[in-house]
C-alpha cells in the first residue's frame, strides 16, 4: 500500500489540474460567469469561489470583471494558454491509449463542409453512434477551406471537403453529385436568357464560385439581369423552391419530391461545371485511430449506396 499511495496522489493531482484547466478554458470561451457555470454544471457562487482559489494558487488575477463580462488579464492569457495546451495533451494521450485497443471509444473529431453536414452526414452519424455507442463525436462545419485549416491546426481528425482541394495526406473519394439549374418556371437553359427572374447565389469557397462563373461565361454573353446573394445554401434552396428565382444547386441538396424543374448543367469541356466531388481527408496518423477507422468504414458504406457515386 505504501508503494501505491504516491502514484494515486499523482493521479489525483493531475485530475484536479485538468478540472481547473477546463474551468479556465470555458471561462475564456464564454467570457460570462453565468454561461460558464451552466456549461460546467456549477452554481455561479461555486464557480466564482473556484476561480478565486485558482487565482490564489497562481498568485495573480486572471480575469477582470465588468458589465461586458470577463476579460483575461495578461497573466490570465498566459495561464489560459497553458490550460488549453494541457487539455489538448491529455486528449492526445487518451487517443493514443485508445488506439491500442480494438474497442471503439474516445472522441472522433470531424470537420465537415456545411452542405454535406446538413444533407448527408446526419444519417452516417446516426449509424456510427448506433454501432459504437461509447464513442464521442465532436463536429465542426464550414467552408472546405476552413476544414483544411482545422486539420492543419489539429482541431479535427478527419475532414469532409468539396471540390478540388490541395491535400498531401490521405484522400478518399466519397461521391460525385451533379450540378442542376433549378427553378419553378425555367424549364431549359435557353429560358434563362428570356426571364427577368433573379439568379439566386449563395456564398461559398472561391473554387465553387469560380466553377459557376466559368460555366455561365461559356453559355451566356452577359451577366444575369438580376442577382440575389445569400449566405447559406439552404436559404438559396428554399428561395428557389418558393418561386423567388432560379439557382444552381448540387444534387446532394435536392429530393425527388421537390416541386421544381431540375436542369442538369452540361458542357462540352469536362473539367468544370458539371459535377462536384466530395472527399474524406486527413493525416495518416489520424487514420490509424480506431474511432477514425470505424468512421471511415461507415462513411464508405454510405458513399457506395449513392446513385451518383462514381469511382
UniProtKB/TrEMBL annotation:
Q: Which GO terms describe its molecular function?
A: DNA-binding transcription factor activity; transcription cis-regulatory region binding
User: Is DNA-binding one of the keywords UniProt gives this record?
Assistant: yes
Q: Where is the HTH lysR-type domain?
A: 22-73
Key word Transferase present: no
One family from Pfam that matches here is HTH_1
Mind telling me which CDD domains this protein's record contains?
PBP2_LTTR_substrate
Provide the alphabetized UniProt keywords: DNA-binding, Transcription, Transcription regulation
**InterPro entries recorded:** LysR_HTH_N, LysR_subst-bd, WH-like_DNA-bd_sf, WH_DNA-bd_sf
Instruction: List the PANTHER family hit by this protein, alphabetically.
Output: HTH LYSR-TYPE DOMAIN-CONTAINING PROTEIN, HTH-TYPE TRANSCRIPTIONAL REGULATOR
The similarity comment for this entry is: Belongs to the LysR transcriptional regulatory family.
Protein name, entry field: Transcriptional repressor of citB and citZ
Tell me what organism the protein belongs to. Answer: Lysinibacillus capsici
Q: What is this organism's lineage?
A: Bacteria, Bacillati, Bacillota, Bacilli, Bacillales
